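FAQ
Q: What does a multi-component entry look like?
A: The components come first, one per line:
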Amino acid sequence: MARYIFITGGVVSSLGKGLMAASLAALLQARGYKVRIRKFDPYLNVDPGTMSPYQHGEVYVTDDGAETDLDLGHYERFTGVSARQSDNITSGRVYRDIITKERRGDYLGATVQVIPHVTDAIKQFALDDQDDLDFILCEIGGTVGDIESLPFMEAIRQLRNDLDPLQTLSVHVTLVPYIAAAGELKTKPTQHSVRELASLGIKPDVLLCRAEHPIPDSERQKIANFCNVRKQAVIPALDAPSIYSVPLQYHREGLDEEVLRGFGITDAPAPDLTSWNDVTDRYFNPEGEVTIGVVGKYVGLPDAYKSLNEALVHGGLANRVKVNIKWIDAEIFEEKDESEIVAALEPMHGILVPGGFGERGSEGKIASVRFARERGVPFFGICLGMQMACVEGARSAGISAASSTEFGDTAEPVVGIISEWMSEEGLEQREEGGDLGGTMRLGAYEAKLGSNSHTSRIYDGATTISERHRHRYEVNSAYIEPLEAQGLVFAGMSPDGLLPEIVERPDHPWFVGVQFHPELKSRPFDPHPLFAGFIEAALAQSRLV
Ligand code: GLN
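Then the predicted structure of the entire assembly, as tokens:
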């Protein structure tokens, strides 16, 4: 049976618990263990699918169609293990399931309570779907002391009794702040946080201490004494120059060794860190650089485009170049005249219009597509970006009212709501005005590629691909003919030939629009071919200008 590592956070939020969990999992994996990481989110939304990216950052989508926390993206990128529906749970989902059962009468007259019903459901979630894993890392969202996370803490406390003593371990991530005026690192917040955790019945085995300055030995000893752990279990986690250096850095500080020791494992194989060394070597020693303009809506918050940002970096790793990302607010373009748009986009070696929702900024995105098309600048449109590339193509074909029904009624619905499609469960049907949560075309779907297409060459000659989707609208096939006449080629379609998946322009150096989200499947060791190809084209463009 798998061993469990419970990861909690203390003192403040945003300590990077997700990255820490992903890094620890990567280190265990490098020693040959099979790992999986799960996220417990204490909020009451059933999933983050309906939350604004400003609230919650990007919504990460799994192959099996779950809309999940962005930390699952870190987990996948660092371990290469595809996340599943069963890897993310929220209080909202637990309560929804319990209340549905209660209404059905499944509890046979019992009083339904947080303990045991909610805590049992949380424990079951942790225990389910184990395959033949060696380690399951469970990250609890939020900070110790939050009211919302109490049932999760209680479930962990119980699980630690239910399971064998050598089968669980608690890692607590804290902050050791530096007070500049005193010139000192302070351990008190860590002491308080551990005390709070202990008051919930959980004694941490390993403390991962985030700090901006090296933690002197004396302070490590002090934390160990006050927090009831051995000194070697106080792991300094200094700010890293890149997220990709984190696993190597934690390994140097002894994290994986200490965790294994906590499980009584003393004969673990040494980790094979070749791929991490290669990734960091490529990242820190680029042989050139390119600048990519991302024209989107949520540009004030990079977390809103987390996977996209990473996939662009991976494209850079594939080509050994540094990728500078210029986030451009599409809405600003709507108030600017042509010359200002040109001035903003001219320095870009590639232009990317990412996924998004709603009308705001759409005209700015369309203007960026036009610029890229007319100037022969590499263009990559993702989901809404692909839809805008088609609206732009239609307008340039003389269909001046071309638009998307997502933005309101239009006489020329080049993009319209998908009313029907085939999924593994059978025919899915949707109509305008239905529920927003969990009702999009979600998760992995196949696309068939035209055998002579540019995109098929990018995918190494593949004729069928599988990519993750998250959309409610599609390019209206009634417009394929005029769009093809204008120069757009529909290079990828759903297997039944009904839903456009990929468009490209053969008369352009690199112009690709995709209805899916390739950024969700890119990994530092295995950059997604579309991002590798886009950055390669941007590099060629940088040599022209
Ligand atoms: N808003 C568009 C749709 O629902 C695009 C979605 C996206 O970019 N993820 O189809």
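Q: Is there any commentary attached?
A: Sometimes. For this entry: Residues 529-544 form the longest helix (16 residues).
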